[in-house]
Specification:
The protein has about 130 residues and is an all-alpha fold. The protein has one domain. The chain has helices at about 5, 10-20, 60-65, 70-80, 80-90, 95-105, 110-130. The longest helix has 18 residues, at about 110-130. It is globular, with a radius of gyration of 14 Å. About 25% of the residues are buried.
């Protein structure tokens, strides 16, 4: 199995993650994990569903794991320099570990917590790219 970290730099990994989300096999009336209805300001993540070594990031995943592109982009646009630095400093050392956890789901549906971590990574990639 090829992993995202083995084949792509950050920009390509971001594009691949967006493509995976866009190609979700869920029906249109089913909220996607990590969508605005399940994370962000309206949902609560269960830390027990996150690997122990990543649980310290649950509050950040709660804040930045916004599945809706428009809402996530708006949050990125509003982020202060301090918030951007906090996210960068928290994720950079464990970015590959997060990706490995997400890859462990293969073709299986991700729980909301994993989706929130994926969307949190996307938010950081968008901040790094300066696209928002």
């Amino acid at each position: 199995m090829i992993t995202l970290t083995a084949i792509a730099p950050s920009a390509l990994r971001l594009a691949l993650l967006v493509a995976v989300v866009a190609c979700s096999s869920m029906s249109d009336d089913t909220p996607q994990p990590g969508s605005a209805t399940t994370t962000g300001a309206t949902g609560t993540l269960n830390a027990e569903n996150v690997p122990a070594d990543l649980r310290h990031l649950v509050p950040l995943a709660q804040r930045w794991g916004i599945g809706d592109d428009v809402d996530r982009n708006a949050a990125v646009d509003r982020a202060t320099a301090a918030e951007r630095a906090e996210l960068e400093q928290a994720i950079a050392p464990v970015d590959a570990r997060i990706t490995a956890w997400l890859n462990s789901f293969g073709q299986q549906p991700m729980p909301d917590e994993a989706a929130a971590f994926m969307y949190m990574q996307l938010a950081l990639e968008e901040m790094r790219a300066g696209t928002h």
